[in-house]
Design brief:
The protein has about 180 residues and is of the alpha/beta class. The protein has 2 domains: about 100 residues, Response regulator (Rossmann fold), CATH 3.40.50.2300; about 55 residues, Arc Repressor Mutant, subunit A (Orthogonal Bundle), CATH 1.10.10.10. It has 8 helices and 6 strands. Strands 1-2-3-4-5-6 form a 6-stranded mixed sheet, sandwiched between helices. Strand 5, helix 4 and strand 6 form a beta-alpha-beta unit.
Length: about 180
């Protein structure tokens, strides 16, 4: 669902929230007519909504602080990404930076405990792939995937893939 003004289009699954935020921003943000503010509510909405063709004009606002999820959003080549912004003033400042052509990222500085390879395993698990599918996609032996996922789960402090998926999609937090 989207609401549209002459300045900014706010897109979100919660139409009332999108409309109210657009109204609040209307007088505060300079001309951002080509920009879309994507509200990542519920978590994962932005990942499902933003396409490569539209990414160049998308600014995503999320509460999901999972480092791998944030990296995945950023790697879509969006114009901006903000996590845990709780004031209109802060959001307006970031939107103004983005409207000037600068890519803007305001996310937690805490990095993931996972290596690059472990993070890839984590992402694929979060997307619902089985161990066999992961092994096939990454051209790895099944025991290598199993061992890697054991390390991922240990580092995340979870019992298994279900809890890991909840962390990736922002439903639960790492311990």
């Amino acid at each position: 669902m989207a609401t549209n003004s002459s300045q900014l289009q706010v897109v979100g699954d919660q139409l009332l929230v999108a409309h109210l935020l657009e109204e609040a921003l209307r007088q505060r943000v300079p001309d951002c007519s080509s920009m879309q503010l994507i509200l990542d509510i519920p978590f994962g909405f932005a990942a499902r909504t933003v396409t490569p063709e539209m990414a160049w004009k998308c600014f995503i606002l999320t509460e999901n602080a999972c480092a791998e999820y944030l990296d995945d959003l950023w790697n879509m080549n969006i114009v901006g990404l903000a996590c845990n912004i709780h004031t209109l003033t802060a959001l307006v400042e970031l939107l103004c930076q983005a409207s000037s052509g600068e890519r803007v990222r305001f996310t937690p500085t805490e990095r993931s405990p996972l290596t690059k390879g472990e993070a890839e395993l984590f992402r694929l698990v979060a997307r619902g792939l089985s161990n066999k599918e992961i092994a096939r996609q990454l051209d790895l032996a099944l025991p290598t995937v199993q061992n890697g996922l054991t390390r991922v789960f240990q580092k995340l402090g979870v019992e298994g893939r279900g809890e890991a998926i909840l962390i990736y999609w922002g439903v639960a937090r790492e311990e």
